[in-house]
Amino acid sequence: MSRRGPKHFAKLAFVLADADEPADADLVGLRDRLLAAAPGDELLALWRRKLTAWDFEQSPAWSATAPRTVERRTEVYDKLAFGGDLRKAFDTAVPVHEEPGPVTISREFQAWYTREQAANRSFYWASYERLLRRKGWNDAAVSGLDEAAHAVVERLADPTRDDPYGARGLVVGYVQSGKTANFTGVIAKAVDAGYRLVIVLGGTLNLLRGQTQRRLDMELIGQENILGAADPNDPDALVGIDYQDDEDWPAKFVSFGARPSVLGAFDIERLTSRDRDYMALERGISALQFDKADPTRPLNDPANLHTARARVMVVKKNKSVLEKLVTDLKKFGPILGEIPALIIDDESDQASVNTTDPKKWEDGKVTRTAINGQISKLLKLLPRAQYVGYTATPFANVFIDPGDEEDLFPRDFLISLPRPTDYMGVQDFHDLDAVDDDEGEAEKRHVRGIHDSTGDRLQEALDAFVLTGALKLYREEHGVPSGPFRHHTMLVHESVRMAEHTALALRINTMWHNAAYTGPEGHTRLASLFERDFRTHADGSLPMPTTYADLKPYVSGARRLINQGGSPVMVINGESERDYAQPDLDFDRTPNVWKILVGGTKLSRGFTVEGLTITYYRRTTQQADTLMQMGRWFGFRPGYRDLVRLYIGREESLGRGRNAKTVDLYEAFEAICRDEELFRAELARYAPLVDGRPQVTPAQIPPLVAQHLPWVKPSARNKMFNAELVEVRSPGTWVEPTAYPETSDALAHNTDCWEPVLAALGQGPVRLSVGEGPAYEARVGTVSHETLTRVLCDLRWSIPSQFSPHLEFLLEAGRLPATIDDWLVITPLQTSTKRVEARLMGHGPFALARRTRRRGSLFGALSEPKHRAAALRIAGAVETAGNVSVEQLVRPRRGALLLYPVVESEPRLASDGTVEPGDVVMAFSFVAPESSAGTGRPLVRFRTIDSGRQDAVVIDRDDVHP
Fold first, then answer.
1. Hey, which residues does 604 pair with through a beta bridge?
2. Contacts of 651 (CB under 8 A, 6+ apart)
3. Of the candidate ranges 21-30, 413-422, 816-825, 841-850, the one whose mean pLDDT is the lowest
4. Which of 72, 185, 253, 301 has minimal Cβ neighbours within 10 Å of its Cβ?
């Protein structure tokens, strides 16, 4: 039962057994054993591991079914020849994990890294996998990492190929979601496969570089490679050896039992250490001289490659450091062309991107920023180097600004990692489906808005920090694992100016010492906050005191830990290494960091604030990536996610004088989150292959995303994307345009276009509901496909390219037979006492929906989830039955459209209850029937502007001729 796929189990068991003939009783016994298995049963653990691995495997040779599906598991059972009872037993013991896996957008590539090859050479990966299991990773998490890392390595060039090729890729994770584990897995698999020089660009600070080095040494490189020939039992031999002062050495550092070369594998030589960045090749040129079994053949020949030692270095993204590395490599000459190298760029959107202004380049010659220039030189020196960037901000310039085609644009692949289980992210802080100004559940639980009417709430945030610290101590004493409670932090950021950080820290210190946490006044405040907030939103599965009196004894312990070192506050501006070298900020070496951290923007990306529970954020910015990276409240919060609170400015001043305006930081952050979620959803939709070929390549992603995000543009005005998005086919998929015009004339024009549809609506309300969902009343009517497309063709948009590919799909469907007959139009009615109704174009009355533009001319969510359910059912996109009214409206080739007359402010109604057409946004969403799918066609269609340069992402406008 290898990764080659499942085989007939009974026959295999018979071959391996001593019995004379196979017996069905063996399978009955297996079923009984499974049903009686205790949680730690070894046989059950083995089967769980194998079934999960088969469930997760991407595009295996033995199966055509999709991974992580019931269909895949059924095929596995078929190949194992399991009967119904045994299948039920396994389904109970090992349920199918149907959470989404990594999404891959890729050029076609030459397959070389098969599962068989990966299994045959897996020394470092197998060691890393064992370590992850010892750390408590479950089978689904390990298999998920295995598949994601395999997807990266198989898209790198074969290290043994004759002609050198350097792949360029990007892996997109989530903020503070454990990307390091992924690239550690990639490095393990890559060195096993034959890559012999690994360069990790590990942040812009020594602290970050050292953390990455330590993590790789501890979990991948291991004790024996660190020690080299030194005897671990000889103190004199250990002088100068790394980690002898580390409290985790050697217990938590992986050990192979002997040097890997003795065990039939190969050793790894470290060219950097925990405290020493790359200074120079300490042994000179010999440090990169590889021993060849056959000197007549190049290093990349299999006869030489697989016995040679690998070299690993973790270097800081610093101009002088990278210059030294480039200078040293230049000394080697032609041998560099034989070295299969892998460059991992952690936080690849930081410092690595060329941010120079193309308009200032002389004679069209690219001018590079310092770090970008050194990375480019590295790639030229190492023709077999593969570059893989890691980032949590997918709209970084390395992705959206691909004009410099010889630079770092991920031309070969982009992999979007799934949201990890138990990760606290966007959906935990933002109710993305909310369409009005009411608080959603996520906002109620975790977000505390700072308004003019609330005051600054800083004292309340400090109280919450003390209270949550006490609750962690309470939970620790009541059986919750204490590991996640080792550190407890609060982040305060309301200015970018360092002088103001010092003043703010002084203010917090004063407020802290006047807070009276040991007296009745302080306890009264804490008791009130506990009752109205933390007890109200507590996780029922975790211990929680029933009264503040039960918690009060733990408050003094929390206060004492926060006061350690004399001050509860630390200022971290991040302008120099000194800011991060504070002993109390070292989360690896300090037993307990319980502190209030003042700073923010300069807290370098990649610097994880451990134990972050309370965030106080009031700093305004117009830069999307800056705001996104400040989402430090995202991450893993085991045992205390219900205690996490975000205090955020909802009415903050931005700009000065005439340009001053008030912004809602929570709303601004939500707009960026929507962009991200949309981007990930788009990738997932277009990732499946059609007839074995990709629907979308990395070169086509920028124009694809640009239809939703008007700020995604090439770097210069004389440039344009080479791919133009022509059609997006969306059968059975919800489509919700948001780029409506802003002028009264354009809005009035659109309202007039919808008149034939308004006329087709019935007067009487119809009650609609699906399954157990809520019911609502609406006016409905039916229009032909021709009528609807005529309306849609005449509409005006603030960004026409957002809707035009969807319109092309609808027009194309109308030209084909038996695709779409008609459309059911639904205009929901409101039951709220605050509802506003108005007549429109002589029709109605209609309920006017209040909505808000979130980014420029773009709205946020327009349709309501309860309204979508009926539309999806009527169009056949869901199988859950609706009520009688809904089922009577279902037709095989019928689409459904929700129409909302939207107002952005209090409407002006005439005496007869009529609203002006120019005051209304006629917003709509639709779902086309599955009959519009057609067969064997990709969901997206592009037009290549310059067909002679198929792989060019960006071209000069001057090159385009009519």
1. none
2. 450, 451, 452, 662, 664
3. 21-30
4. 301
d(CA 557, CA 18): 64
CA distances from 934 to 181, 937, 956 (A): 42, 7, 36
Instruction: Indicate yes or no: pTM above 0.85.
Output: no
Q: How confident is the model at residue 744 (pLDDT cuts 50, 70, 90)?
A: very high
CA pair distance 823, 929, nearest whole angstrom: 9
Pairing of strands 488-493, 645-649: unpaired
Closest CA to 677 of 701, 705, 699, 698: 705
pLDDT score of 22? 44
- CA distance readout (Å), 510 to 455, 459, 506, 712: 18, 11, 6, 46
Q: Alpha-carbon distance 716 to 401, whole Å?
A: 9
pLDDT bucket at 572, cuts 50 / 70 / 90: confident
pLDDT of 1 higher than 50: no
User: How far is 481 from 136, CA to CA, in rounded Å?
Assistant: 13
Q: Residue 42 and residue 53: Cα distance in Å, rounded?
A: 17
The secondary structure element, H or E, covering residue 934 is none
Phi (first) and psi of residue 316, to 5 degrees: -80, 145
**Sheet containing 569-572: which strands, arranged edge to edge?**
447-450, 645-649, 612-617, 488-493, 594-599, 569-572
Answer for the pair 427, 656: CB distance below 8 angstroms, yes or no.
no
Mean pLDDT over each residue of the chain, to the nearest integer: 86
Does residue 199 contact residue 315 with C-beta atoms inside 8 Å?
Answer: yes
Q: What is the pLDDT of residues 211-242, one digit of tens each?
A: 899 999 999 999 999 999 899 888 888 988 99
Beta carbons of 417 and 148 less than 8 angstroms apart: yes
Residue 895 has pLDDT above 90, yes or no: yes
922 neighbors 814 (Cβ within 8 angstroms):
no
Q: What is the Cα–Cα distance from 797 to 803, expressed in whole angstroms?
A: 8
Single-letter amino acid, residue 581:
A
